[in-house]
Amino acid sequence: MDRRTYLLAAALTTGTAGCSGVLPQSGGSGEISVVDSRKVEGRIVEQSATPPEYTARIENTGITGELRVELYWNPGEQQAETPAATTRVAIESGARRSVTLSADRPASADSYGFRLRSMDFAAEIQNTGAETTVRVQFVQQPSGTVRAETERVVPGGETATVEFRIPDGYAGEYEIRALTNR
């Protein structure tokens, strides 16, 4: 059987997202396309501190879902690899909310910062051919690691929404892949 792959690549960094394009492949009596990709799109609009409490005001310009909020200590010009504190927050599309994390600042820290990781992602899979089962993958880039996967029957001539939850959150580049056996 011939396996076909269709991609939508999205470059995602904390606070920004963009789709780099749809790469459909024709085959048989139609095609499967990943036509859209969305996520919880958190950005920090303000931050403040009253040690040991550190607060970030967050705005979500993406879909409703959850964000992982991480507090980091910055020794010098670099950000620490391990967060000092983390929490998960639910946030509606278009909403703003404050999140406060508590941690004791180490002597080596010159400053602090926050990192936001999206936990919820969605993609639209379009089928212009006959009904088929599509395996949809959330693929971390550039490593190619499949972080989540699901199967979905997509009727001919329809578009289906597929949702992914990444439990530890994700803030890097990714691809949504749709694979068929037709």
Give a structural overview:
The protein is mainly β and 182 residues long. The protein is 0% helix and 70% strand. It has no helices and 14 strands. It has strands at residues 4-13, 16-23, 25-27, 30-39, 42-50, 53-60, 65-74, 85-91, 96-102, 111-127, 132-140, 146-154, 158-170, 174-180. The strands form three sheets. Strands 3, 4, 7, 8, 10 and 13 form a six-stranded antiparallel sheet that branches. A five-stranded antiparallel sheet has the order 2-1-14-11-12, with no helix packed on it. Strands 5-6-9 form a three-stranded antiparallel sheet, with no helix packed on it. β3 (25-27) and β4 form a beta hairpin. It is elongated. The relative contact order is 0.25. Residues 1-6 and 9-28 have low confidence and may be disordered.
- Tell me the number of strands: 14
| Spatial separation of the terminal alpha carbons | 7 Å
Major sheet: 6 strands, antiparallel
User: Could you give the order of the helices and strands?
Assistant: EEEEEEEEEEEEEE
How large a portion of the residues is in β-strands, by DSSP E? over 45%
Q: Report mean pLDDT, rounded to a whole number.
A: 85
**Overall helicity:** under 10%
Give me the number of helical elements: 0
Structural class: mainly beta
Uncertain runs are 1-6, 9-28
Rounded radius of gyration (Å): 19 Å
Shape: elongated
